[in-house]
Write a structure and sequence with these properties.
142 residues, seven-stranded antiparallel beta sheet, single chain, Umud Fragment, subunit A, alpha+beta, two-stranded antiparallel sheet
Amino acid sequence: MIDKREIAIYILIIAVGIIAAQHMNVVVSGSMEPVFYRGDIVLVEKVNFLGIHEFNPNEIQKGEIVIYDATWFSEPVIHRVIDVRTNNTTGQKYYVIKGDNNPRPDPSPVYPSQIIAKVITIGNQPLYIPRIGYVTIWIRGL
């Protein structure tokens, strides 16, 4: 017979797993090589996780790696902020973003409202788990 403590432990393990899974993102292209490769899983902070604001997208700095909803691509994009600018007409802040392995910046400016997460770093090193995301890529047909 299973006791109440054992059930509580199982519930806790499941909850931790769900929360951890929501803070991971699979890299699906080579645009950030050699920092990340296709199939790597990056650890992220979310702009809004169940009502908790883990960081402010208006405070992103040059050099940070973010995940954003691109206007030019159907999936979220993981790229690096290469410049922070202000629109002279509207006064609105925006980011110029580029994949490290891409020759040019992304085709559209990225506004703070488009940013959904940023990669967690320790020092200047992003946190990631190499290659184990290939299963997800295979399942999704990417």
